[in-house]
Amino acid sequence: MLIEAAVTQFIETLRQSGKVSPATINAYGHDLFAWSRFSQQRGQTEIAQIERSSLRAYLMAERSRGVAIRSLRRHFAAIRALYRHLQHDAPELRNPVQGLAMPRAEQRLPDWLTVDQARVLMQPIPGAAEDQKDFIRLRDQLILELLYSSALRVSELAGLNVGDLDYHGGTVRVLGKGHKERIVPVGQPAWAALRAYLALRPAVSAGEEIALFINQRGQRLSVRSIQIRVKKLGAARLGQPLHPHTLRHSAASHLLQSSGDLRAVQEYLGHAGIGTTAIYTHMDYQQLAQVYDQAHPRSRRGAQDTKHFEEKT
């Protein structure tokens, strides 16, 4: 069977099944016809002619063309799905995808703030707690404090209730991913912000609203509203938009830098496995490399300084 005919038949089968989204069908079609054209240019027009080395050559050519790993993984998945479909009707067909490793996903390091940036961000804007604007100011300050102090996800922050606070223990009860509950510490600056906010909250709260964070109508603040507030606060205080997750990453990174205890950071973040937390060790190495390049006399920058010194002497 011709490769192009096989791809056309497969895409039509996906459409008729009604089980695959139009976006996925279009993406698969785009990727598979691109692979078909590549194969034809190499003189391979029949499905039976395709070997593992042919697929590897295609993926390498796409990568060298600048295609992202994420897109390459989609290409690979499309070809694998095609062969599964073909083998359903022709089990004897050789499957070159079998035994071929999928391109490894790129590991993107999360954004985080330096300790100095976090300190600037957390500096409260002075004002008298008298009116609605002051309620918003104190609420937004508490949002920043809790996101950073307790490394909360924005969904966890939005879901907090007043009853989740343990004043005696200095902790907050959080409902995380998979409805898993954990207890996390709250720092003294966050408690100070909390007391100031709670002093004004009753005047705004709508009836028996149990949510900790509420809007001006006295209703629970949504995740989207928190994201907007944090973005604006970052722009105002740091000169750059800020995402709530950046504060979570920053808190984890700063704790790991100070303690070196990866297990404690895992517990702090509520990660199910240590592998997820290990990303922060890479962040440490990245920061170490930056410090090394700036300060060590044998770094690349140091070597340039040494050369400049030798030229002057």
Automatic annotation (TrEMBL):
Sequence ranges assigned to domain Core-binding (CB) in this UniProt record: 1-87
SUPFAM superfamilies, A to Z: DNA breaking-rejoining enzymes (SSF56349), lambda integrase-like, N-terminal domain (SSF47823)
Active site residues of this protein: R153, K177, H245, R248, H271, Y280
Gene Ontology BP annotations: cell division; chromosome segregation; DNA transposition
Compartments where found: Cytoplasm
ATP-binding as UniProt keyword: no
Single annotated GO MF: DNA binding
GO cellular component labels: cytoplasm
Transmembrane regions: none
HAMAP family the UniProt entry points to: Recomb_XerC_XerD (MF_01808)
Function text: Site-specific tyrosine recombinase, which acts by catalyzing the cutting and rejoining of the recombining DNA molecules. The XerC-XerD complex is essential to convert dimers of the bacterial chromosome into monomers to permit their segregation at cell division. It also contributes to the segregational stability of plasmids.
Subunit-structure text: Forms a cyclic heterotetrameric complex composed of two molecules of XerC and two molecules of XerD.
Recorded family membership: Belongs to the 'phage' integrase family. XerC subfamily.
Protein name: Tyrosine recombinase XerC
The species this protein was found in: Acidithiobacillus ferrivorans
